[in-house]
Amino acid sequence: MASSMPIQRKKTSTSPTIISDSSDNDRKEIKKSPSLVMILLQGTLVVIIVFFLSSYLFTDTWTWGYNNKYTNWRNWIPRKEMIFTEEELAKYDGSDENLPIYLAINGEVFDVTGGKHYYGKGGGYSFFSGKDASRSYVTGCFETHLTHDLRGLTREQLKDLENWVSFYRDHHTYYRVGRVVHKPIDPNSPIPPPCNDASDKKS
Ligand code: HEM
């Protein structure tokens, strides 16, 4: 009788340990096997990486050569619309290297700092910077029509102007920053006359 006691104690004392070990192992096994969500996330990540890497490999761009306002990260940042007076806008004409370059077209102001070689100091189109020169976009008079005065333009010219606005809106580098509030045009002032001087046009 006395000799069987320790055997019974041993059985009862080891039994809970065995159960505990197996449940730990079970837990470990559950942790080890990745969940469906993890598999999906990892799969998606791999697809995204392959997408961008192969785009760069084949097209030298990260977006398969697709470039427009949606590939311009600045358009994804919500920003407060800035309102400029004509005098305020004039400060952003590219003459101050520390300021961005802004231009306005049909009242909309765009940051065109990305096109510094066109719009910055000495650039071929620097006369557009710091102002709303809408009229000159459709008449080509880059000296006498640097104004927002659209009086007398044809329907076709106004359509051309809208295309230029879209050019800046949809650009992959430029982005809209706000609006310029123009001084009202005196209806009695003369409409800017057409320019016939060839030197006034881009050549
Ligand atoms: C109504 C007439 C015109 C307007 C409004 C106009 C406007 C512009 C603008 C805004 C740009 C810069 C594009 C950008 O930001 O990416 C540009 C670039 C350019 N334009 Fe014009 N343009 C006109 C006529 C011409 C003409 C007649 C020529 C050539 C004879 C010309 C040649 C160029 C060239 C070569 C560029 C590339 C940048 C440069 O070298 O300055 N453009 N144009």
From TrEMBL:
PANTHER family from the entry? Answer: CALCUTTA CUP-RELATED (PTHR10281:SF76), MEMBRANE-ASSOCIATED PROGESTERONE RECEPTOR COMPONENT-RELATED (PTHR10281)
Question: What is the protein name given in its UniProt record?
Answer: 7333_t:CDS:1
Q: Which UniProt keywords apply?
A: Membrane, Transmembrane, Transmembrane helix
Enumerate the SMART domains for this protein: Cyt-b5
Output the InterPro entries linked to this UniProt entry.
Cyt_B5-like_heme/steroid-bd, Cyt_B5-like_heme/steroid_sf, MAPR/NEUFC/NENF-like
Gene Ontology MF: a single term: heme binding
Entry superkingdom: Eukaryota
Mark out the compositionally biased spans (Low complexity). 13-22
Presence of the UniProt keyword Transferase in the record: no
**Presence of keyword Transmembrane helix:** yes
Native source organism of the sequence: Diversispora eburnea
Lineage of this protein's species?
Eukaryota, Fungi, Fungi incertae sedis, Mucoromycota, Glomeromycotina
Q: Which family does it belong to?
A: Belongs to the cytochrome b5 family. MAPR subfamily.
Q: Where is this region: Disordered?
A: 1-28
Give the record's GO CC terms: endomembrane system; membrane
Q: Where are the transmembrane segments?
A: 36-58
List residues of the Cytochrome b5 heme-binding domain.
84-181
